[in-house]
Amino acid sequence: MEENDPEAAQNDKMVRTFLLVDINQAIRYLLGNDRATSSNTEQIAKQALNTEAKEMTSSAQPEQKSEGQSTVSKLLLVGTVIGLGYILKSKSKAMNKVVSKTTDQAHSIADKTTKRSDEMAQQTKAVAGQAAQRIQERGETAADQVEAGTKEAAEQVDKRGEIAADQIQEGSEKAADKIDEAAETVESTQEQQEEADEERSNEDEQSEEDE
């Protein structure tokens, strides 16, 4: 039993190596709450392994080092390295998943934004085209109305001009007729006056002859 005590003590020291790592730091590292936690955990583990190895080397006697103890130490070291590697690998996979998911979400948002921008551009183009078409239609309608109004006004002016011309012509003809009538009246009056003068002169001559 006394010969196995040094071996048991060495095994206890190797087991304590795992307990030297801060549990709180290990939990934070696994949860990913702090980026600096991973480096701190690795440093603590390395320091613990180095310290334990030095203690084992200084306390062990040459005659107490057997092949079985060396094998156990190597297995424990290999287990520690494998555990740390597994933790780092799991952490890396989790980070890769998060980054991949974030990248996919960013691409999805970018695609949706581009699609919405294209839809808004098409809607704006369609609205602008409809507005331009309405403006053109209203302009053509207004031009047609102006043209129709101009034609009606011109026709009314022509009609009124023709009516005025007819009225002027009729007035001129009536005035000419009146002038002709007045001239005839003057001529008849002159003829009557001449006839009256001749009759008077004849009467005067007869009265002189009778005397």
UniProtKB/TrEMBL annotation:
Region (Disordered) location: 51-70, 139-158, 167-211
The protein's name: Late embryogenesis abundant protein
Biased composition (Acidic residues): 192-211
Family annotation (Gene3D superfamilies): Helix hairpin bin
Lineage of source species: Archaea, Methanobacteriati, Methanobacteriota, Stenosarchaea group, Halobacteria
Ranges of compositional bias, category Basic and acidic residues: 149-158, 171-181
